[in-house]
Structure formats: C-alpha cells, structure tokens
C-alpha cells in the first residue's frame, strides 16, 4: 500500500517533452520580429513560468519594439505550437504511460496541475490518448496566480478531495517545487532542462532521473 491517496502531475517537461518545443519556437521566430537577444539562454529563465508572465517580461525587456510587433510575435509562437501539438507528435517523457498505469492499477486518482492553458493541456493529453487517466485538470485558466504561488496545487488537492498531506506532486521545475512546498504537498522532482539547485534539493522528497525511478516512492512495488 501507499501513503499517498492522490497524485498531481505537472505537464510541461514532466509528462511531455514540451519545454524544448517552446524554447525552439520562440528562439527561431525572434529574429523575424526584431527580438534580437531572445536566445536560448534568455528563454531558459522562463522554464516553469506561465505564458502570461513570460509575455509580460518580454514586453518589458523589449519595450523599444512596437506593441503590435510583440503581439504578432506571441500570436505566431502560440499558433505554431498549437499546430505542432495538433499533429499529435509531441513525445511523452519516458515512463509517463507506465506511471499512469501504475496509478490505475493501484486505484490512485491523478490530476494535472499546470501553468499552461487548458486548451493545450486537453489537446496534448487527448492526442497522446492519456486523457482518460486523469480525474481533472487545473490550468492557468482556473487560477489567479501561477506557480510558484501554491494556488494551483491547492486547487488540485481540492479536485482530488484530499488533504495536502495525502497527495504527491511530480514536478520538474523550481517554481513547481516552490508551489508544492507552500501547499504542504510532498514533491518528487524529475529534472528536465534545468538541473536541480540547492533549493529544489532541500524542498523535494527525492530527486530522480525519470518517472520510472519515482515508482517506489509512489507505491511499494
């Protein structure tokens, strides 16, 4: 048996290999719109941050450009990402399906808590045929404050109808770890593009290399 009665999944960089997609799309489009300096190192600062916050920061950093130019850049990026997702070829992270099957086998409900838009969460999970594993979704559309604010994690525990102490969060980003910690939910970190820092190490229950390695901490297998 497990001490956890519900599991909360982040999505980008945890279930799907999407962080690299967002990075590549924005870096590729940036020169066409005059956003010189928006390179890989710049975009790495936005891992685990909501689109709203990313766009606000870019507007500030590139305020010398016309507002319409920035609007067009954001629209082009989101449209290209949507097109890629609709193609159904966005890869799942190693162990994603196996972890969901493990939870199903042990009758442990799971939800997604992601700072992404509900539109993209539903699109990705449906195209990958994993939407049926989740009993609910909490997205950027349902909260006022994205991670690292704990609101999204708290809403996820409410969706599961469980006390925070009975839930486990699976995360890849520092902001997600901070949100889980503030919500009093144990968190396992599976790093994606950014290596764990001391804060992540201190706040995580454990850090593992992939979702397969998280299984013994979810259930006694």
TrEMBL record:
Name recorded for this polypeptide: HAD family hydrolase
Species for this entry: Vagococcus elongatus
